[in-house]
Each structure stands twice: as C-alpha cells, then as structure tokens.
Amino acid sequence: FLNKFFGAYMPAELLESITIIDTPGVLSGEKQRLERMYDFPNVVKWFAERCDLILVLFDPHKLDISDEFKRVIGALQGNDDKVRIVLNKADQVSTQHLMRVYGALMWSLSRVVRSPEVPRVYIGNFREGPYESEENARLLDLERDQLIVDLKDIPRRNVARKVNEFVKRVRTAKIHMLIISALRERMPSMFGKEKKQKKLVETLEDVFFEVQRKHNLPVGDFPPLEPFRDCLKAHKIEKFPVMNKVALKTLDEVLENDLPTLLERFGNPFDAEG
C-alpha cells in the first residue's frame, strides 16, 4: 500500500489544521475479481482507528453495495460516531429522482451498517464550478456549508478524542492497580502460595466483582476477564507490589482536576473566525 501512497500540498486554509486522506475507491462488479496487492479493508481499519472523521462517498448512479464495500463497512465498526455519508453529484439528478436515490441509499446502508443510529448524510456536488442543474441549488449550498462546518470542527473533536483516550488509559491503570492489590492482599505470607494462586485465578471474577463493588467502578472499564486470567497464570501474585495509596490518589486527582483543566486550554483554531 505504501508503494502507491503519496501526498499533495494544496493552498487551503482548512488544510492548515487538518489532513485529508483519500483512500482508493471500493471495487464493484467485475472489477472485484482484480486482486489488490494489499489488504484493503485492513488499511481502511488502520486509518479509521486514527482519524477524527470518515467520509463515505456515494454516486447517485452507483448505489450497489459490493462484497468489498461490505468488508470495508465491517472494518469501520467501532468508529460509527466518526462516519458521515456523502451523496456526491446530486446536481445531476432531478428532485424526484434525488428522493428515490436517497431512499435507496438509506435502505442499502441499513443492510450493512450495524449501528442503531443512522449516519449523517450530506447531499451535494463538491467539485468546483456551477451545478449541472439548479433545481436543488439552495439545498446543495446548505449541505455543502454544513459539511464545511463539520470539517472545521475536526480540531475540537481531535482534542476531545485524545483526552478521552487518555482518560480511558488512566481509568484502566487505576482499575489494574486495584485488581493487582486485591489479589496481592489475598495471598498467604508463608505457606500454600501456589494453591492459593490457583484458586484466585479460577475465581478471578469474584475479585473483579468485589473491586467493582467496593470502589463503585463502572463494569465496562474492567479488562476482559479471560485474557486477564490467562495473563495472570504466567505471573506470581506473591511478587505483585502492595497498594501505593499516593499513586492512587494522584490518578484520582488527574481525573478530577487535571483533565478538565487540560480541555479548557485547547480550543478550535476556527472558532476565532466568527
């Protein structure tokens, strides 16, 4: 993929704060028989996990959902809040035809997008030059302007996403510390350590539940049980460190004080335009 990947500079104010990645188009029909020299859905997944906004473009004359497109949609799972649908070249059809196209598009998407919320759909023609038909010019102008607003909001979402990821890491570290401490406290000081460790590993869900109840923590923040259990088997619980209350207090202060302050320090570079 990198052998075919290249960049370009454009004199646009918007691009001073964001970078646009244009992935290869999805193959359909007979073209699907042509093998790419790389795993295209995996490339899409890699970019989707790291970007702040995903634009999926459709042509009103080509609404078919190919097998490759289904795999690409599958690669976007877990990033549903980032996805926006763009129905491009909408000035090439009449109002009546556009309504049919929009309905067909939503029906097709409902079959492949596994999300309770429908992605935002932008309708327009996003090339330079006049519209081929002025019938829906007002609607297309409004949609284009709204898409630009969405793009200019990327820097703010980028900061929020990074802070949210950091919050997730801090909360994970805290829960990991509490679990390790709870396991360590249950170990005997002298005899029967091996037998006790085996029992703790087998009843790890009980330790998770007690930590969650004692500290009133969200269940969703806990690590997956079975991978944690498998990892625990490779370590000696008796050698785990005891609880560092100072470190735990520091993590709480980061979550309660430092992160809200951090969010206030960073804004959107486009906010000053208004």
- Numbering strands along the chain, what is their spatial order in the largest sheet? 1-2-3
CA-atom Rg in angstroms: 26 Å
DSSP summary, beta strand count: 3
Structural class: mainly alpha
How much is the average pLDDT? 85
List keywords for this structure.
3-stranded parallel sheet; about 270 residues; about 50% helix; mainly alpha; 3 strands
Description of the structure:
The chain is mostly helical and 274 residues long. It has helices spanning 40-50, 67-75, 95-112, 137-152, 154-186, 193-202, 204-215, 225-232, 245-265; strands at residues 54-58, 83-87, 120-123. The chain has a 3-stranded parallel β-sheet with strand order 1-2-3. α3 (95-112) links the parallel β2 and β3 (120-123). α1 (40-50) packs parallel to α2 (67-75). The longest helix has 33 residues, at 154-186. The protein is elongated and about 85 Å long. It starts with 39 loop residues before the first helix and ends in a 9-residue tail after the last helix. The relative contact order is 0.09. The model has no long low-confidence stretch (mean pLDDT 85).
